[in-house]
């Protein structure tokens, strides 16, 4: 018998050290199927990690036989790191990835078996939107009420249910013009993707499932390979993802068993299916809108026979106060199994509640609290700010910049969604996938080279006439019958692309260019950066910085992936999930949506905008199951906090271009009053008439009191839902009450000049301790100290009435007072 190479060999105790009995059972159980269901912070992910490490350490499985699915790439990286920590380099060959990344890996190997090439492009949401837009326009589908986003979400839903074009055709009512039109759109969309050799995000999973089902011999390769499949956050799997797991864990049929196999065979001569472990919490299911199906959890035992179920009940993450609040909120969802989640982490600090007058007021509270926590020794990395919608970030960002809070935005205006980045990515895509005509069309006139829509059409018509690709038609610019200037521009671009493509060839005389070299060739050849820098427009300067940033991203990629190709780079880029922007070392507070926060944990958490219309979101509020799903989202947010939780709201909020009064979220009143300590706006202190302890509920009845209790059956009568919950809870300044309907901000010296779009710049202001300054919002104060230097100069100021604040001198709306 040959021994396996030595791997890290911890005594069993190391792996099980510190785990509670249920956790130990979950780590050591061996059998075909294991389901771990438990509330937030009970160690589900930790158990999964230790289970994998245990399989490797005990030599029950090679790393290559393990497939672990996590919810984000960040979670995958974290899990890999934790496993490496336990078993060392043995973890290298293991597939730990998201559903999407695992499917890309499979498709990159197999796509050529069904009509794609392995250099396929991945369309992100914005790409598919652009394609749908074109189709909707050409079919004039808007006449029938189709919008781009409604089409996009419907297609996505169908794909998540594994309903392809033919499947839809079978279920559609073709005498209904809307169904007929949608079928047309869906078909054209699918054909366009295929022609472009591209998959959209949902395709990655549905096409993999389809491929595994259509090619049993290929499926058998993966079924033989993966002996252990483990899935985190199982409550958020949709039908396509569920089907993928089913296909991968099926037993291998006898005819697909190689004669020389050393694997144990079942009685039929086949190989038993992989062992499957899933962990999840139905209270954290927040992706129903993307087709996630909680039933995947509740029906696990039926679907996977002999499944063992383990329950975990101790929460190791949060203090009891935070946990009690979470339990109190989620208890209002009916149709759930109540869990007895407890913590021995002590009561901990009270939850802090805050009601600001405006979103800026709210943001200022968050910034001030962050500074306080930081002064008390907490690092920025351990703090996170959550919100329901990306639009909320604007106020937070403005205030954070002004108040010198270092922050990182996760998701939202994602780096890779910016026009200039998409342009350069389109250039790279055009190089490796010339069939992707969308990319080539995108870059035709960017940067501007006077190739307008008419010229684009001319190239397109020429390509169709001769049955050649768009790129081929560009190469024959001289035959298009266009003016000399335009002809020259097209020819020049075609040559640039061809030269750059040649540079990717391993056999090219100069050797294969790296990704960053290729990118630089493009940036230089097109004059992309130069043109941005020439305009003098500050926005273009920011764009130029982004271009440079992308070049550094590519350089970093080259460094970490010796020999990595442009395709590898593009795959990476396409898969950068929202949470992946997180780099913890940066020492910055992270800002992210509640959805992105799943699975993560922070010492201090701020949940902002805890208001009706935002949480529950107005779209969800009227949908069946919507308010319950939004409550789960709130539950997810609360349970991210280890030690401190802040819940805040604003009385007035601008949304959709209008400023309107907002109401406290119905979920706030579900938290027992004694767990929350409410604060009032500090800006109102001194000289402003003070506060009156007055409840919002008595001024305006929260929505929760009208009908929701009865309609939703959440067990609260309409009488106790309103005033009682809020009477001492949510307060606002009486002096502001008159401004509710017509909020008029006092004339402000804006930190961004609206006319020029130029940022305020106080770089030249010489400030020293003792100087008196005046601030637009905080009034007058005395500079206490100056920290940092140049652009990062921070003034610590004791304001006469607003207390101590830190301000970024360069951008803060301040003036130096001469005395
Ligand atoms: N037995 C234990 N002893 C000490 N700490 C533990 C134990 N089990 C888990 N933890 C810690 O508790 C925290 C929560 O664990 P983990 O993230 O695995 O929970 P989870 O159930 O996956 O939560 P979520 O539902 O939010 O994903 C982590 O910091 C983890 O290291
Ligand atoms: Mg987890």
TrEMBL record:
GO biological process, one term: recombinational repair
Signal peptide: none
Reaction it catalyzes: Couples ATP hydrolysis with the unwinding of duplex DNA by translocating in the 3'-5' direction; ATP + H2O = ADP + phosphate + H(+)
Domain UvrD-like helicase ATP-binding per the UniProt entry, residue ranges: 17-319
MF GO annotations: 3'-5' DNA helicase activity; ATP binding; DNA binding; hydrolase activity
Keywords: ATP-binding, DNA-binding, Helicase, Hydrolase, Isomerase, Nucleotide-binding
Name of the protein this chain belongs to: DNA 3'-5' helicase
């Amino acid at each position: 018998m040959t021994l396996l190479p030595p791997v890290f060999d911890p005594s069993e105790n190391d792996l099980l050290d510190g785990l509670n009995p249920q956790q130990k059972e979950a780590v050591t159980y061996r059998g075909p199927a294991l389901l771990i269901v438990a509330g937030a912070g009970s160690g589900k992910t930790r158990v999964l990690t230790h289970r994998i490490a245990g399989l490797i350490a005990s030599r029950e499985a090679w790393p290559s036989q393990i497939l672990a699915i996590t919810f984000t790439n960040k979670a995958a990286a974290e899990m890999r790191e934790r496993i490496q920590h336990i078993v060392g380099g043995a973890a290298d060959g293991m597939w730990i990835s998201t559903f999407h990344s695992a499917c890309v890996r499979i498709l990159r190997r197999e796509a050529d078996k069904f009509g794609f090439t392995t250099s396929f492009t991945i369309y992100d949401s914005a790409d598919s939107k652009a394609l749908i837009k074109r189709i909707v326009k050409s079919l004039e589908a808007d006449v029938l009420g189709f919008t781009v986003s409604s089409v996009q979400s419907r297609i996505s839903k169908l794909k998540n249910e594994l309903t392809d074009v033919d499947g839809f055709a079978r279920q559609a009512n073709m005498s209904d013009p809307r169904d007929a039109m949608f079928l047309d759109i869906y078909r054209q969309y699918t054909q366009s993707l295929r022609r472009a050799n591209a998959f959209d995000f949902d395709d990655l999973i549905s096409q993999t499932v389809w491929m595994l089902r259509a090619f049993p011999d290929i499926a058998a390769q993966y079924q033989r390979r993966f002996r252990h499949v483990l899935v985190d956050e199982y409550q958020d799997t949709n039908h396509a993802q569920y089907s993928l797991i089913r296909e991968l864990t099926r037993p291998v049929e006898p005819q697909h068993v190689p004669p020389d196999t050393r694997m144990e065979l079942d009685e039929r001569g086949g190989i038993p299916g992989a062992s499957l472990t899933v962990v999840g919490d139905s209270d954290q299911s927040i992706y129903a809108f993307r087709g996630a199906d909680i039933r995947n959890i509740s029906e696990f035992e039926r679907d996977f026979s002999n499944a063992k179920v383990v329950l975990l009940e101790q929460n190791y993450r949060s203090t009891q106060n935070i946990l009690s609040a979470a339990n109190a909120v989620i208890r209002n969802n009916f149709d759930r199994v109540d869990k007895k989640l407890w913590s021995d982490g002590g009561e901990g600090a009270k939850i802090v509640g805050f009601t600001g007058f405006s979103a800026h007021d709210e943001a200022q509270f968050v910034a001030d609290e962050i500074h306080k926590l930081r002064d008390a020794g907490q690092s920025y990395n351990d703090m996170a700010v959550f919100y329901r919608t990306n639009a909320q970030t604007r106020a937070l960002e403005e205030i954070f910049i002004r108040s010198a809070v270092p922050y990182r935005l996760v998701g939202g205006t994602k780096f890779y969604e910016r026009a200039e980045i998409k342009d350069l990515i389109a250039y790279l895509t055009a190089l490796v996938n010339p069939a992707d005509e969308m990319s080539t069309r995108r870059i035709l006139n960017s940067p501007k080279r006077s190739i307008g829509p008419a010229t684009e059409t001319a190239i397109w018509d020429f390509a169709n006439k001769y049955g050649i690709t768009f790129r081929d038609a560009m190469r024959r610019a001289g035959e298009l019958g266009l003016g000399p200037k335009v002809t020259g521009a097209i020819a020049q671009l075609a040559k640039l692309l061809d030269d750059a493509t040649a540079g990717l060839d391993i056999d090219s005389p100069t050797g294969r260019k790296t990704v960053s070299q290729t990118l630089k060739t493009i940036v230089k050849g097109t004059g992309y950066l130069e043109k941005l820098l020439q305009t003098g427009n500050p926005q273009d300067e920011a764009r130029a910085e982004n271009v440079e940033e992308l070049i550094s991203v590519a350089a970093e990629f080259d460094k970490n992936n010796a020999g990595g190709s442009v395709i590898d780079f593009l795959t990476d880029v396409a898969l950068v999930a929202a949470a992946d922007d997180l780099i913890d070392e940066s020492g910055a507070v992270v800002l992210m949506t509640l959805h992105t926060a799943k699975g993560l944990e922070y010492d201090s958490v701020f949940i902002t905008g805890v208001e009706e219309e935002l949480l529950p979101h107005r779209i969800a509020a009227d949908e069946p199951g919507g308010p319950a799903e939004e409550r789960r989202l709130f539950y997810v947010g609360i349970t991210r906090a280890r030690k401190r939780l802040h819940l805040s709201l604003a009385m007035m909020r601008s949304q959709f271009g209008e400023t309107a009064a907002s109401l406290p979220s119905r979920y706030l009143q579900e938290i027992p009053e004694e767990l929350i300590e409410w604060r009032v706006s500090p800006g109102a202190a001194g000289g402003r008439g003070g506060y009156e302890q007055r409840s919002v509920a008595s001024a305006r009845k929260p929505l929760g009191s009208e009908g929701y209790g009865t309609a939703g059956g959440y067990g609260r009568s309409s009488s106790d839902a309103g005033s009682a919950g809020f009477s001492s809870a949510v307060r606002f300044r009486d002096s502001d009450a008159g401004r509710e309907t017509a909020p008029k901000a006092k004339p402000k010296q804006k930190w961004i000049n609206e006319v020029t779009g130029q940022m305020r710049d106080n770089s030249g202001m010489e400030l020293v301790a003792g100087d008196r300054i005046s601030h637009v919002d905080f009034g007058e104060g005395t500079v206490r100290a100056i920290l940092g230097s140049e652009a990062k100069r921070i003034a610590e100021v004791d304001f006469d009435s607003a207390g101590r604040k830190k301000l970024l001198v360069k951008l803060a709306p301040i003036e130096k007072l001469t005395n």
